[in-house]
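Recap from last week: sequence in, structure out.
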Amino acid sequence: VNYIYGIGVDDEQFQGVTLSDGRVKVYHNGLPWIADKWYKEITINSTQFSRRPIGERTYEVMTTEGKKGLYISTVFPMRDPKQIIPAEFDMIRTTSMAIGVRKDGKSGLYSYEGKIIVPIEYSRIITGKKVIVVIKNEVEPWEDKYAIFGDKDIGLAALSSRKSEGIYGVYSYDGKHILEDIYVKIEEKSTG
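Predicted structure tokens:
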């Protein structure tokens, strides 16, 4: 062991141990807190999102190869964190509704329960309050598919002003593929 340090999160004290090669492990009350593995980096964050439980924390981990994963604890700090995203992604972003991941240039979404909502096969994902718009960069100019979707909060105005950038589809937050990935344009429906 090369280095021992303390981490304070909301008046809870964690102990960190760093090896001479830079790998770290976090302990709470003398027991491994994140996992029994060593990581290059561990970041503890409060989710602080509406619709997320009070006291919930996410624990982003990074392997020595630079891949990221995510643990979660809903009863902080009484319960051991559960791994919900395996440590194999290039990027992880948490939102109030889902967790965005990116691997080998493709994006997808996980739920906070660790279930895949959107498969990891899209160029871009846009999350709204009710639905998720997905985009694949595979434009076939002879296709003339067009969809109108009535979810005003989804932020498609910026998309409709641009040149077509790919094939669009729509998912729900429970993982249902509402509109197949065949549309070259999706537009918000005006409800009056």
